[in-house]
Amino acid sequence: QSKESLKRSAENLEIEVKERTKELEKEKIRAEELSKGATPLLEIDTEGMKYTDIALLEIAEGKLSVSLEG
Q1: 3-state helix, strand and coil shares in percent for the chain, rounded to the nearest 5
Q2: pLDDT single digits (tens) 1-36
Q3: How far is 33 from 15, CA to CA, in rounded Å?
Q4: How far apart are the two ends of the chain, measured CA to CA in Å?
Q5: Contacts of 27 (CB under 8 A, 6+ apart)
Q6: 17, 56, 60, 70: least buried by Cβ within 10 Å?
Q7: Are 42 and 61 within 8 A, CB to CB?
Q8: Considering the entire predicted model, what is its pTM?
């Protein structure tokens, strides 16, 4: 691979890592909110589910957005 190609790959990987880190931060914050009584945003029965699983599903279904800003 050329230097330019490697640089683009590294930049893409860095963006991917930042996005995943933000998702994990959002998941943790949302799980904490749920544990304190926040209403799940899902249209399924969440009784018996772990708060982290609910938070992950909310993110996956687009109920919560994850932004690289802030």
Answers
A1: 60, 0, 40
A2: 788 999 999 999 999 999 889 889 999 999 999 999
A3: 27
A4: 34
A5: 52, 55, 56, 59
A6: 70
A7: yes
A8: 0.73
Residues near 19 by beta carbon (within 8 Å), at least 6 away in sequence: 66, 68
Cα–Cα distance measured from residue 33 to residue 30, given in angstroms and rounded to the nearest whole number: 5
CB of 59 closer than 8 Å to CB of 29: no
CA angle 59, 65, 66 (to 5 degrees): 90
Q: Tokens 């708060």, residue?
A: 51
Of 51, 28, 48, the residue nearest 39 (C-alpha): 51
